[in-house]
Amino acid sequence: MLWGAIMYKNKEIEFKTIITEEQYLSLLKEFDLENNIFSQTNHYFDTDDTKLLNDKTVLRIRQKGNNYKLTKKTRAEIGANEEHILLTKEKALELLEKGFDADIIGLPYFVHKMAELTTHRASAPYKNGTIFFDKSEYYGKVDYEIEYEVDDVESGEKDFSNFLESHNITYKESIRKSKRAFDNRK
To answer: In CATH, which of 2.40.320.10, 1.10.10.60, 1.10.3720.10, 1.10.760.10 is domain 7-184?
Structure first.
């Protein structure tokens, strides 16, 4: 099989805020997640003239251990639409090295790897969704954030707001991980 697996789609609704290292460590401790952190690296692709970035489309290969997944993320009226293709390790390494025709995932461009970011992530069920505590490293920078993924915007926004308030966390807008990586690449 050329690409590794069939394509599947989903809708992503998430709420995010930047937090401090102290808040991150405190939340890991509160949720008993200090020993339950996994790492994933996002390899971001684009055209030489960053057509995808300018169009607010994210194309990445996410590597978790020996698992690789190609994802296209596009803005939607609510949240983001995602399309995924599972990749074999061999195919992923080939795409990372040589670039590829993104028509395979519905984009009319030849793309190549432009940036990367590694996230050390812990997650837990929370209310009607999943809460993630992230430490991201990219090009000598480190930042921390909370992401809350849900299926319903209204209840998710309320639950996220209540979570921040109950933990004395001031909301700070979070720029997309892909944009942070692109803006800081060397």
So the answer is: 2.40.320.10
